Fold:
Amino acid sequence: MRYVSLGLLSLVSVLSVVLFLLEIFSPLPKLQKDEQTLSQTLSASHEKILRQTLLSLRLTDIAGIVSKRSTYGVLVETLTKALPKGMTINSFSVEKTDFEMTVSADNLDDLQEYFDSLGTLTRQQKMFQRVYLNSLDAVRNTDGGFNSFQAKLAITLN
Amino acid sequence: MLNDLGNIRSLEDIRLLYFKYKDTPHFSLGVVVIIILLCTTIIGRVILPQFDRWFSIQNEVKVAKVRIAVLEKNVQTLSTLNDTELTRQFNLSKQALPFEKDYTGIITTIDTIAIKTGVKLDDYSFQVGNLSTTSAKLAPQAAISVKITVKGELGKVQAFLKDLSTITPLFEVVNVSFNNSSAGLGLIFFYKYLPGRLEIPYTDPIRIVGPANLKLLETISTWSSNMSIIQEEETGE
Structure:
């Protein structure tokens, strides 16, 4: 019993000394010194870091704006390109996803061709969700025939 | 025995007592009890706090190693950054999204595009009002709205609209109303103030411009060049 207790005392003492030595020879002070040196190196290039950070933040903002802003120029170009010869866009207005326009044609065939083109564009679902014909007016000439046709279209954009 | 302990006057008394009781079970028990008490005290007062400190040091070492790894990576990142290129990229981003409201810049840009596309510009109207477009919501404090009227045939107005999306500074066309060779346009001009105080801990990884944003920078560079070319053509240089 006495030897066991003496062994325990020795074990406790050795453990205490080992822990003390581990503490003394810990790599922490060296690491702290390394950290300080590296921080000093970086602080010498503070302006560069600042510029890089601002650039990155600004580009994130720009990417957000560019990806979400409207592309009405491309939209009008697409609608104009789809126009058969002899047809014109008289007026249009657009805000958010609502696009309204008035087109005129000399004959119904051209109008039908344009509607077909718009139908194809809608099916492709790249730009348009829905194309709706609001009204179709025909203007008679003096001979009693039809001089021109005017269609009002409402387009819902994606 | 307790009486004997009470009569201790000198070291000699202790020595006598030791020889008197050393072979008795009481002595052995006493020694064991004293050693156990001593061990308990050492464990409680020395070893446990040492363990605490050791674990705490280990944690600090772990954290310090992570911080150092980031710092080393930051130093490495910095060494790969070209100063001239960084300045060029920074200036491009500043052109696209200025730090402040630049009314002159807006007017110059709109004028330049109008001349290039052949539309005639009427009055301007600057407003700081409700900016409810999706993109404006990204930075509601950093946009001003501009209303303009342009005159020209559809093709020219369309070209004007298209060119507005390929120039710097950044614009967004909010609404358009075209009728009889005249178009009313609602535009939004974006800007963003410099942060008043930007804390950058060196132990945070330096933000790298990713491939997507590098591509965006090149696009902005093209837009910027477009403006320069148009302006040079205007001035006949």
